[in-house]
Amino acid sequence: xxxxxxxxxxxxxxxxxxxxxxxxxxxxxxxxxxxxxxxxxxxxxxxxxxxxxxxxxxxxxxxxxxxxxxxxxxxxxxxxxxxxxxxxxxxxxxxxxxxxxxxxxxxxxxxxxxxxxxxxxxxxxxxxxxxxxxxxxxxxxxxxxxxxxxxxxxxxxxxxxxxxxxxxxxxxxxxxxxxxxxxxxxxxxxxxxxxxxxxxxxxxxxxxxxxxxxxxxx
Length: 218
Prior knowledge:
The chain is mostly beta strands. The longest helix has 10 residues, at about 135-145. A hairpin with a 2-residue loop joins β8 and β9 (about 85-95). The protein folds into 2 domains: about 5-125, Macroglobulin (MG2) domain (Immunoglobulin-like, Sandwich), CATH 2.60.40; about 130-215, no CATH class. The strands form 3 sheets. Strands 2, 4, 6, 7, 10 and 11 form a 6-stranded mixed sheet that branches. Strands 1-3-5-9-8 form a 5-stranded antiparallel sheet, with no helix packed on it. About 5% of the residues lie in helices and about 40% in strands. The protein is elongated.
């Protein structure tokens, strides 16, 4: 599962809490994940450098806490990092929902929050990154239906809103309710339905299939 260390940091965007300042922090914080992608059962090792902060913690924005109740919004907890030779290290446990998540750093016990659109952790089923990608999420949905057994065609597709407990970023994670049928069979009784989730490989990346389920949150 581990890959060559993947640097997801470049120039970070710093945002201060009300009444606090970020002037003491460098404009460049480097975040390195030991693996680009994890499944639901593993953690991602993280290293943070380029900051003189006295404390560093990290979280996955929009992720759910694994220890929370099912179908209830319980925010992913801050993971406190430990410093060694100027580099902060720790682990990011995978959240219980597949998706792509932006990382956020908390510096100096909350005096500053720092993030970047390039700091992303992918929580994917095995093989997701080998699937073809498309310019649009709709293109990924059409391709999925076209590869189903029995020469199926897409009959209808509708963007499906994320549930109240699901705070995944909709710019990166999109869900659709779809209907499909055998090619040339117009009978309403021949139609079948699925919920299809697509993910975007970064804020300016391409879309691919994440998973298809019979219920929105199987």
